[in-house]
């Protein structure tokens, strides 16, 4: 995995990603000329131009690409039940409590922040196994890269990205790093870069 992580970081260093804008026409949201919501008011996940990731969005790719989807993988010797489990766990300063969070599923871990007395947004510091990490640091970015390379060791997640030939977007979420452990831009860039990296390695 170390070699794949090294290759990915080299690939990502040269990767250019531009996040598109959401356009509002007649009180309806569009991305790249296509509506984000169907006639029944449901968020569209899969269409001919893009995949709008969301666990509750309409479309199988949108759901399966969500950080909430239950892909098991090992990260730094700890078993994760989804990528979201990591992003919720690092909000816990206490190592023992963090490990409890890591034992939950992605959807459940998304609601467990209320169990922590530590408010990371006030300090900008997150924790990995008791070690403080500045949200704005390259150390944090490196940790995220290792997280996703660890996640694609799950063959189902890897194949999903490999078979994806559309732009991956994520129209939910915060834009400010100080308010979230992963912004909309960071998510979009990471998944598109990861997708293109895997496809390049597979000769696609």
Strand coverage percent: 5-15%
Q: What's the quaternary structure here?
A: single chain
Computed structural class: alpha+beta
Give the count of helical stretches.
Answer: 9
Number of strands: 9
Draw up the topology in text:
Elements: H1 2-13, E1 22-25, E2 28-31, E3 34-35, E4 50-52, H2 60-64, E5 73-75, E6 78-80, H3 83-89, H4 95-102, H5 106-109, H6 120-123, E7 125-128, E8 131-134, H7 138-151, H8 155-162, E9 167-169, H9 184-201
Parallel strand pairs: 4-9
Antiparallel strand pairs: 1-2, 2-3, 5-6, 7-8
Helix pairs in contact: 3-4
Q: What distinguishing features does this structure have?
A:
204 residues, 3-stranded antiparallel beta sheet, single chain, Tetracycline Repressor, domain 2, 9 helices, two-stranded parallel ribbon, 15% strand, alpha+beta
Brief summary:
It is built from 9 helices and 9 strands. With 204 residues, it is of the alpha+beta class.
Describe this structure in words.
The chain has 204 residues and is an alpha+beta fold. The protein has one domain: Tetracycline Repressor, domain 2. The chain contains 9 helices and 9 strands. It has a 3-stranded antiparallel β-sheet, with no helix packed on it. The protein is globular and about 50 Å long. 26% of the residues are buried. The model has no long low-confidence stretch (mean pLDDT 93).
């Amino acid at each position: 995995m170390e070699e794949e992580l090294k290759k990915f970081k080299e690939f990502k260093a040269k990767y250019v990603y531009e996040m598109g804008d959401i356009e509002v026409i007649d009180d309806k949201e569009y991305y790249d000329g296509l509506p984000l919501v169907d006639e029944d008011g449901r968020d569209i996940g899969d269409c001919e131009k893009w995949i709008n990731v969301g666990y509750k969005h309409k479309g199988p790719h949108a759901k399966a690409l969500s950080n909430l989807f239950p892909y098991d993988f090992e990260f730094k010797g700890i078993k994760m039940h989804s990528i979201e489990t990591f992003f919720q766990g690092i909000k816990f300063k206490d190592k023992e409590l963090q490990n409890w969070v890591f034992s939950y599923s992605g959807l459940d871990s998304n609601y467990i922040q209320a169990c922590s007395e530590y408010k990371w947004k006030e300090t900008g510091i997150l924790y990995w196994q008791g070690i403080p990490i500045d949200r704005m640091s390259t150390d944090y970015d490196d940790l995220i890269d290792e997280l996703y390379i660890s996640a694609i060791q799950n063959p189902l997640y890897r194949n999903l990205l490999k078979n994806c030939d559309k732009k991956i977007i994520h129209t939910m979420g915060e834009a400010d790093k100080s308010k979230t452990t992963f912004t909309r831009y960071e998510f979009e860039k990471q998944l598109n870069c990861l997708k293109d990296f895997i496809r390049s390695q597979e000769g696609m």
